[in-house]
Amino acid sequence: MTRTLVTAAILAMTGAGLSAQEVTIKIGTVVSGDHPENVGAREIERLVEERSNGEIDVRVFTDSQLGNQREMVEQLRSGTLEMTWVTTGFFGSWEPVMGALEIGYLFDDREHAFRAFDGPLGEEVAAKVEAHGVELLGFFEAGMRHLTNSVQPVEAPEDLQGLRIRTPQSTYHLRTLEMMGASPTPMAFNELYTAMEQGVVDGQENPLSNIYSAHFSEVNDHLALTGHLHLTHMVLYSEELWEELSPEHQEIVRQAVIDAQQVQRDKVASDDASLLTELEGQGMQVTEPDRAAFAALVAPLREDAIAEFGDEAANWFQLIDDAR
């Protein structure tokens, strides 16, 4: 056998001869295809495929096709899924201090959150999560969260008393709703519509884009603009699969995520500007509660987090305050 044929045979056996065109990146999300998260996903897809000259094929799976958020994070950690995103607090299941970032009213507005996560806070968060088998590539906006329910208008904390409100499985997120007066019920997002339809929970809290795209106006009549949480998604890649990419492909993917951040955040902003009118047109009754009353009830959670996590939580809160 000639040297050329021997070399070809060895490459075929080892896999080293695999074509660059065979690199595939799967992105999994839990929301509908037109949601701002998937606008960001499609932008990553476009940029990666364009900049790699077709060497990387990106495939976006929406609507929990690949599982719920917890399942997809575990897939990242086990090396069976390339990319997904979850909020900082959701990652508290693996790194408990992350939950402290979902205490209510930590951020004044979206710009405040961007300054914090695009700065030193983001670097410290990356160091935490990357100890758990993932690579943190950037931050998408999850958005400002508001309350909906099927029982009554919410004007003040007393109006939340006894209402069963779904929350994500995040300790300080859940405690925020509890301090605000609700009875929080953790539940996966893809189970929520049916749970409200069947009366398992009375309502939920999410950004306007989630409320609209998931058709929650069909099962909830009341929308309260509480603005109690501004959440940030961490764009995560499987560490195991990241190390299989060439350095050139790693740089293409990392830069694509960074460039897609602005497109995704712009979509959230444009939706927030228009969707309130859409939801009112669908019959939702909108109230604008006094946020200061809710913020005062939630404030003690900062000290609770510092008591639980010590200087690390205190430092993170200081970085957030410094970004105001």
Automatic annotation (TrEMBL):
Its main location: periplasm. The keyword Transport applies. The keyword Signal applies. Keywords: Periplasm, Receptor, Signal, Transport. It comes from the Bacteria. GO terms for biological process: transmembrane transport. Gene3D superfamilies: Bacterial extracellular solute-binding protein, family 7. GO terms for cellular component: outer membrane-bounded periplasmic space. It is found in: Periplasm. Belongs to the bacterial solute-binding protein 7 family. PANTHER family: C4-DICARBOXYLATE-BINDING PROTEIN DCTB (PTHR33376:SF7), PTHR33376. This is Tripartite ATP-independent periplasmic transporter solute receptor, DctP family. It comes from Wenxinia marina DSM 24838. The lineage of its organism: Bacteria, Pseudomonadati, Pseudomonadota, Alphaproteobacteria, Rhodobacterales.
